[in-house]
Design a protein that fits this description.
This protein is an all-alpha fold. The protein is 71% helix and 0% strand.
């Protein structure tokens, strides 16, 4: 049976959807390089790409959470300490940073991971699928905060933007946590090849 067909059959039995899954599917967990998360920072190769990726992921999570939080403040407070334009600028910076990070993974890191750890192919396929969902969610928020000539659209809904930002935040957190379980052990094992 070819790999794509096998992946489709696994998809039917396991929840691979980044919107609803609570953890990595068991079929992917079994394929991971077995270096427990709580030992990563003690690994001799940690202070390279592994730490860089964890720090970068934490930064993305913080930017996403800040966007959600600032939108909630704007919804709940008649006079927040910041303007809608500041929140929009913050959101645009976050979206650009996230797209750039995933572009680098899709075009450099994931192909390399497939070559050095072939048995993690299903895990990389999962992350590729996550990136499609994440890109859609990022683009959805981007569309809500892109105003021609800097003028806010009269149909703009802060509540709807908040709803979209919360969805994006949920996808991002699930994806980044799962991605770390798959890729950080690769960095720890092969640090010198990067």
């Amino acid at each position: 049976m070819n790999e794509a067909k096998q992946y489709e059959q696994t998809s039917a039995r396991e929840n691979l959807d980044v919107l609803t899954r609570k953890q990595l599917p068991a079929s992917i967990e079994r394929q991971l390089i077995q270096i427990p998360r709580d030992t990563w920072s003690q690994h001799p190769n940690y202070f390279g790409k592994a730490k860089f990726f964890i720090d970068y992921h934490n930064s993305l999570k913080q930017m996403s959470a800040a966007l959600v939080n600032n939108l909630e403040v704007m919804l709940d407070s008649p006079k927040p300490d910041f303007t809608l334009q500041e929140v929009i600028h913050q959101g645009q910076g976050f979206i650009q940073t996230a797209h750039h990070h995933h572009y680098m993974e899709d075009h450099f890191y994931f192909p390399h991971f497939r070559r050095v750890e072939r048995e993690l192919g299903k895990g990389i396929d999962l992350l590729d699928g996550d990136h499609k969902s994440l890109s859609n969610a990022l683009n959805d928020v981007q569309e809500r905060i892109s105003f021609p000539n800097g003028q806010v659209d009269p149909n703009f809904s802060l509540g709807y933007l908040h709803e979209r930002a919360v969805k994006l935040d949920n996808i991002l957190k699930r994806h980044l946590d799962d991605e770390e379980e798959i890729i950080i052990p690769i960095f720890l094992k092969y640090e010198r090849s990067y």
